[in-house]
């Protein structure tokens, strides 16, 4: 199953990044499927990113490393999540093309060459669409709703944002910074970097063969919160004063009108203000306006000192 031609160069045609957590039973079969699917057309490397597994996944990766010439492994000391695993895999990948897929044998590696062909038609990335999913309704129905909302909010016409099977030009993955649950929004992140040629391909989805899903219902809540954060950052990351300053201006304006009106009534009509809740409301708006302006200024200062999420704190246990 090895590919000796890969040792002749440090730059294979294709890098396949596979994040995993406790998938020892599927790794050998997955590697064989990948080899059979891509070895005739491409030199390749498979980068397994062990996201803090507690089973024998790392031992299987090390064994595959010794047996073949195209397996690389990254092992975290603890579980960081799929986004961080993909980020480290992207950092490590050196192929002209970069593919990602899940480790549970539900993604079909035979789709990768077809997706690369589509990629070369002028796209920056191709995202898989599990049109017929082999998952229970408790996963498929929330996922469809989530994808519909994400498509409407971001304006990107995809049916399946969270499909693990994707193919990119490496220049795209080099510009991506992933953390939290942002792996769900890679097409949107790529578009924000100027890679707007995004395609989609219907892909085969297989039933899970070993183990069980590592993702619970809470992933949808976390994903929604990350979407709100992402939309805010994409719109105002470079200009926080536009957001907070606008709110500050509105509050200061309304608060100023209220306090001016009350001051006018007190000076010219001798209206007592001690029992007027409107006075407290006007003062509150003025205070909030000043605070929002202050937040905007602080955001501008922070924006000058930090341009992207710091990835240096990720604790990689070992590499092979």
Number of strands: 8
> How big is the Rg?
26 Å
In terms of structural class, how would the helical and strand content be classed?
alpha/beta
Q: What's the pLDDT, averaged over the residues?
A: 86
Q: Name the strands of the widest sheet in spatial order.
A: 7-5-6-4-1-2-3-8
Strand content: 5-15%
The separation of the N and C termini measures 19 Å
Q: What count of helical segments does DSSP give?
A: 10
Shape label: elongated
Give the topology string: H per helix, E per strand.
EHEHEHEHEHEHHEHHHE
Unreliable runs, pLDDT <50, ≥5 residues?
4-9
Percent of residues in helices: 40-55%
Largest sheet: 8 strands, mixed
Key phrases:
eight-stranded mixed β-sheet; 320 residues; alpha/beta; elongated; 47% helix
Descriptive notes:
By secondary structure, the protein is an alpha/beta fold. It is built from 10 helices and 8 strands. Strands 7-5-6-4-1-2-3-8 form an 8-stranded mixed β-sheet, with helices on both faces. Strand 1, helix 1 (27-38) and strand 2 form a beta-alpha-beta unit. The model is unreliable at 4-9 (pLDDT under 50).
Question: How are the elements arranged and paired?
Answer:
Elements: E1 14-20, H1 27-38, E2 44-50, H2 57-67, E3 71-76, H3 82-92, E4 97-100, H4 111-119, E5 125-129, H5 137-154, E6 166-169, H6 170-173, H7 186-192, E7 198-202, H8 218-236, H9 240-269, H10 277-305, E8 316-319
Parallel strand pairs: 1-2, 1-4, 2-3, 5-7
Antiparallel strand pairs: 3-8, 4-6, 5-6
What's this, in brief?
This protein is α/β, with parallel strands linked by helices and 320 residues long. It has helices at residues 27-38, 57-67, 82-92, 111-119, 137-154, 170-173, 186-192, 218-236, 240-269, 277-305; strands at residues 14-20, 44-50, 71-76, 97-100, 125-129, 166-169, 198-202, 316-319.
